[in-house]
From TrEMBL:
Residues 99-192 form the CAAX prenyl protease 2/Lysostaphin resistance protein A-like domain. InterPro entries: Rce1/LyrA-like_dom. Keywords: Hydrolase, Membrane, Protease, Transmembrane, Transmembrane helix. It holds the Pfam family Rce1-like. GO terms for biological process: CAAX-box protein maturation; proteolysis. This is CAAX protease self-immunity. The keyword Phosphoprotein does not apply. One of its GO terms (molecular function) is endopeptidase activity. The chain crosses the membrane at residues 7-25, 37-61, 73-95, 101-118, 130-147, 153-170, 201-218.
């Protein structure tokens, strides 16, 4: 039987996500917190809280998975977290002369908090829809959640990036079902808070190429034997 979309669960998820985001970026609620890294995490915690609340309240079968289709959690952790953290920390050291270890951890966890909501919950809930429609809904809700709604040129570019990211990260999630994987990809742009320059763009391209190649290789290597037998028949 085809699973139906629980729109009430989606509404609960999104209301909580928006309230948390608004409190974090549009009020002075976090002004008393001196730890800047904690402030960053609190700005992104809404989608995770909303997802967990919706799944719990409505007893949904959704199971948030860090490892996804991988045999153990070590592999996606190494490929999607340790690898980019190592390479990006090296770039930071080359540019600024220091290793931003705490920043690496914060940005990756921030990406995970968002991805628990956008992919782990919302994309799962919208699976009965055609992929195009699901991506449009996720992209629009994700853009609004940032609460940067002025129709400026930069925001319109950001809207385009959001829709492209929804499509790209969504495909990786469909392939891996791993929240570690999509959190790593999600965090890629957030690592470079001072903008993207030639070195950073090259690093992003290299990491994306490695990840896409790894996904293709892993998928082929672990393709069920009966699929290979049928294709050779």
């Amino acid at each position: 039987m085809e699973r139906k979309i629980n729109y009430w669960a989606i509404a609960v998820f999104y209301i909580i996500a928006i309230i948390c985001r608004y409190a974090a970026v549009k009020t002075d609620l976090l002004s008393g917190i001196s730890n800047g890294y904690l402030v960053i995490l609190l700005r992104g915690v809404g989608p995770a809280l909303g997802a967990i609340a919706a799944v719990t309240i409505f007893s949904l079968p959704n199971k948030f998975s860090l490892k996804g289709t991988y045999t153990n959690i070590v592999l996606p952790f190494a490929v999607y977290w340790i690898l980019p953290a190592f390479l990006i920390a090296g770039v930071y050291y080359f540019i600024e002369g220091k290793f931003p270890i705490l920043l690496m951890f914060t940005v990756l966890v921030y990406g995970l908090l968002e991805e628990i909501g956008w992919r782990g919950f919302l994309q799962e809930e919208l699976k009965p829809l055609r992929t195009l429609y699901a991506n449009l809904i996720i992209g629009l809700l994700w853009f609004i959640w940032h609460l940067n709604l002025e129709m400026t040129a930069s925001n319109l570019i950001f809207l385009g990036i959001i829709f492209f990211g929804t499509w790209g990260i969504g495909k990786i999630y469909n392939k891996t079902s791993s929240l570690l994987a999509v959190a790593g990809v999600h965090s890629l742009n957030n690592f470079f808070r001072n903008g993207l320059h030639q070195t950073e763009l090259i690093l992003i391209v290299v990491l994306l190429a490695i990840w896409i190649g790894f996904i293709i290789f892993y998928d082929r290597k672990n393709k069920p034997k009966y699929d290979l037998d049928s294709s050779n028949a």
